[in-house]
């Protein structure tokens, strides 16, 4: 699995010029064999693209400091090897520097956008412009770790060249892009490519929705803008996949539709205020879809509703499948948190649900997501060790009514109601679905259960209905709820 800024997935920054989907047939014909030259556009945009140099103090034994070598510089590895591995380690606190990219969005006010990781931990931030001038960042107006964005403030002596956001939703795979950035400390570098894919999930967070490009992107390009062929910013470059740290043609950028909303809130509030429903959701897998009579890749299944949350007040229940949010189809589980996060706090939003086979409409007033809320939980489960049970065996599960002894044995809260799993046949479909001893079946076939016989009756009812699996709602000792579709054969 890829993780942000790991050995393979490296945070970078690059500026790219992306073709506009709305440019029309004339532009398509002009660039049928690739653009003849992007020099006029690069010249027009380069003054708004900046190099960002940061420094911070790191502690060490007393002595002489290391020579300052910019992060990603051609001889960085040589200096690191010489001074760190051959007895030349410096003594005393020293300053280390790093370089990234950014772009000006308001030349009069001196507002600059970059990645949060570019300036994270920095004690000093200098902005270097294309003409050789330099300004010191006076204030970090705000930062958002979830989208990896930051908004900086400088005081210009005269209005700076700036750029505007364009609609990333209108960019298509195959549109031309140009990168202007600060790779390896070489400011003002330009590269050209296309959009390779959209809506990429690189497992860096719950709101992953990256643009992918094959434009040459390298270390030091982090925070640089992506431009379409009209010179509008349609993304902020953030990461690459690379086994070496250099470009292999797979780079990622936060789309401008997301960036513009985040930056607007940072300007207004100094923080980001994301929408919140108060539901824990999970993917509608093929087997779960079959038990609910749904097409695959449809909606987000509500596993639990937070008491007192907007979803609770709107009447949402565990087992509901959210099909549409604010007029937009929810085609995947991960799609819903992105829609909710971008909704305005306090906004009344229409929902379309599937509840026990029937479509229903509801309206929810979007709340505000706090830092410790988890609105995008894809509930996982782990296989556990078998217990020594004495209950009834159903669909490969040995089940018993809850008792004080069993609650103590499995560390189950008194509020948990249902039938406890004491043993799982390792050859059964239930085992392959991750059910384990100590799990409590709360519902079977969307009916509440309190005895093993209730589970058996629900299984028989599902069989008579011609279903191939029974849908169980399961709660663990931590109070986490999830739905599991267990095949009946």
UniProtKB/TrEMBL annotation:
<protein>
    <recommendedName>
        <fullName>Probable periplasmic serine endoprotease DegP-like</fullName>
        <ecNumber>3.4.21.107</ecNumber>
    </recommendedName>
</protein>
<dbReference type="InterPro" id="IPR011782">
    <property type="entry name" value="Pept_S1C_Do"/>
</dbReference>
<keyword id="KW-0677">Repeat</keyword>
<feature type="binding site">
    <location>
        <begin position="220"/>
        <end position="222"/>
    </location>
    <ligand>
        <name>substrate</name>
    </ligand>
</feature>
<feature type="compositionally biased region" description="Basic and acidic residues">
    <location>
        <begin position="377"/>
        <end position="387"/>
    </location>
</feature>
<dbReference type="GO" id="GO:0006508">
    <property type="term" value="P:proteolysis"/>
</dbReference>
<keyword id="KW-0574">Periplasm</keyword>
<feature type="active site" description="Charge relay system">
    <location>
        <position position="117"/>
    </location>
</feature>
<dbReference type="InterPro" id="IPR001940">
    <property type="entry name" value="Peptidase_S1C"/>
</dbReference>
<dbReference type="InterPro" id="IPR036034">
    <property type="entry name" value="PDZ_sf"/>
</dbReference>
<feature type="signal peptide">
    <location>
        <begin position="1"/>
        <end position="28"/>
    </location>
</feature>
<feature type="binding site">
    <location>
        <position position="148"/>
    </location>
    <ligand>
        <name>substrate</name>
    </ligand>
</feature>
<dbReference type="Pfam" id="PF13365">
    <property type="entry name" value="Trypsin_2"/>
</dbReference>
<dbReference type="Pfam" id="PF13180">
    <property type="entry name" value="PDZ_2"/>
</dbReference>
<dbReference type="GO" id="GO:0004252">
    <property type="term" value="F:serine-type endopeptidase activity"/>
</dbReference>
<feature type="domain" description="PDZ">
    <location>
        <begin position="382"/>
        <end position="477"/>
    </location>
</feature>
<comment type="similarity">
    <text>Belongs to the peptidase S1C family.</text>
</comment>
<dbReference type="InterPro" id="IPR009003">
    <property type="entry name" value="Peptidase_S1_PA"/>
</dbReference>
<keyword id="KW-0720">Serine protease</keyword>
<feature type="region of interest" description="Disordered">
    <location>
        <begin position="367"/>
        <end position="387"/>
    </location>
</feature>
<keyword id="KW-0378">Hydrolase</keyword>
<feature type="active site" description="Charge relay system">
    <location>
        <position position="222"/>
    </location>
</feature>
<feature type="domain" description="PDZ">
    <location>
        <begin position="266"/>
        <end position="357"/>
    </location>
</feature>
<feature type="binding site">
    <location>
        <position position="117"/>
    </location>
    <ligand>
        <name>substrate</name>
    </ligand>
</feature>
<feature type="active site" description="Charge relay system">
    <location>
        <position position="148"/>
    </location>
</feature>
<keyword id="KW-0645">Protease</keyword>
<keyword id="KW-0346">Stress response</keyword>
<keyword id="KW-0732">Signal</keyword>
<dbReference type="InterPro" id="IPR001478">
    <property type="entry name" value="PDZ"/>
</dbReference>
């Amino acid at each position: 699995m890829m993780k942000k800024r790991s050995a393979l997935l490296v945070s970078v920054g690059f500026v790219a010029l992306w073709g506009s989907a709305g440019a029309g047939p004339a532009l398509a014909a002009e660039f049928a064999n690739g653009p003849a030259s992007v020099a006029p556009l690069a010249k027009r945009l380069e003054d708004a693209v900046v190099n960002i140099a940061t420094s911070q103090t790191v502690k060490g034994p007393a002595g002489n400091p290391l020579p300052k070598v910019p992060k990603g510089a051609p001889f960085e590895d040589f200096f690191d090897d010489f001074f760190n591995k051959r007895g030349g380690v410096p003594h005393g606190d020293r300053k280390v520097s790093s370089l990234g990219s950014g772009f000006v969005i308001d030349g009069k006010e001196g507002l600059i956008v970059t990645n949060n990781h570019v300036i994270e931990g920095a004690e000093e931030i200098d902005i270097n412009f294309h003409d050789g001038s330099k300004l010191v960042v006076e204030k970090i107006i705000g930062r958002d770790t979830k989208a990896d964005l930051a908004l900086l403030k400088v005081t210009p002596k005269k209005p700076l060249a700036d750029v505007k956001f364009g609609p990333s939703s209108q960019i298509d795979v195959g549109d031309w892009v140009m990168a202007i950035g600060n790779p390896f400390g070489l400011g003002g570098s330009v590269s050209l490519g296309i959009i390779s894919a959209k809506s990429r999930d690189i497992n860096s967070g719950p709101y992953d929705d990256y643009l992918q490009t094959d434009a040459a992107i390298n270390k030091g390009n982090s925070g640089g803008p992506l431009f379409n062929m009209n010179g509008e910013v349609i993304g902020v470059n953030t990461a690459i996949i690379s086994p070496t740290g250099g470009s292999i043609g797979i780079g990622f950028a936060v789309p401008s539709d997301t960036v513009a909303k985040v930056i607007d809130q940072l300007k207004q509030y100094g923080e980001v205020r994301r929408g919140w429903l108060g539901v824990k959701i999970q993917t509608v897998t093929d087997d779960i879809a079959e038990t609910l009579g749904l097409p695959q890749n449809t909606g987000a299944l509500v596993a639990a509703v937070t008491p007192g949350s907007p979803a609770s007040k709107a009447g949402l229940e565990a087992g509901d499948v959210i099909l549409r949010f604010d007029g937009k189809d929810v085609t995947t589980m991960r799609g819903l948190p992105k829609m909710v996060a971008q909704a305005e706090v306090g906004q009344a939003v229409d929902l379309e649900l599937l509840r026990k086979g029937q479509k229903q409409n509801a309206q929810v007033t979007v709340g505000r997501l706090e830092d410790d809320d988890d609105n995008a939980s894809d509930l996982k489960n782990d296989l556990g060790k078998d217990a020594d049970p004495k209950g009834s065996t159903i669909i490969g599960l040995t089940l018993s009514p809850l008792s004080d002894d069993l609650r103590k044995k499995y560390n189950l809260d008194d509020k948990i109601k249902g039938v406890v799993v004491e043993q799982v046949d390792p050859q059964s479909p239930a085992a392959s679905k991750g059910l384990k001893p100590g799990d409590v079946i709360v519902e079977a076939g969307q009916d509440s259960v309190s005895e093993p016989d209730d589970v058996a009756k629900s299984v028989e009812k599902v069989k008579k209905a011609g279903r191939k699996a029974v849908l169980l709602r399961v709660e663990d000792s931590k109070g986490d709820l999830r739905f599991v579709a267990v095949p009946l054969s």
